[in-house]
Amino acid sequence: MRLITLTLILFITSQAYANEQDPWEPWNRGVFEFNETLDFYTLKPVAQAYRNVTPQVVDDAITNVFSNLGEPVVIVSDLAQGKFLAALSDTGRFIVNSTIGILGLFDVARHIGLPKHNEDLGQALAFWGVQSGPYMMLPILGPSTVRDAAGFSVETLALTDISVASHVFESNELFYGMTYVQYLDIRADLVASEGLISGDRYSFIRSFYLQRREYLINDGVVEDEFSDDFDDEFEDDF
Fold this sequence. Notes:
Helices cover 68% and strands 3% of the residues.
């Protein structure tokens, strides 16, 4: 019930603000400053230390594990968009990497011709005609839109419910600990890309995020080349 209610509220909001990109900018900037401060004093120093002491092969293995855990969401998103061949490929990826790849530590599937697809429920909602709604800066989580926030909420609640039902996580501490490690891994990978940001950080990140999402939703068919220029640097981090 909570899942349906939350999704409905976000859907109505996205439709109401369909033609406005950032009507909540003052609030978003405040949240952005909060995130920047929190990142500066907590996550960034740990991410830099993690990057300095973690061998690349270990860093890649950690990234692969979390990528593999997200494959079921990718598969569902493929099916929701009618991308049945991609769904079959991603199912193969999940099976191969979960077994031969030792629970996703190694991306074996990539080496046998099963590339990773960047699909999520936000893109599935776009496929079904849901407007993106206003840009949102979420506390801790960062840039989003109302539509993407709805998709992310469904993914998170589904993962939590499945985890509880299957007793994958014996405690909340383990669940949140794994979540922290995942975001730490992402933050560490972004350290090297920070030099690409120029001008007003808020505006740059907003522009990049929105164009990156448009790029993914349209499977790379976009008029603006901004996403193409920066796609290689941020491909696995957003």
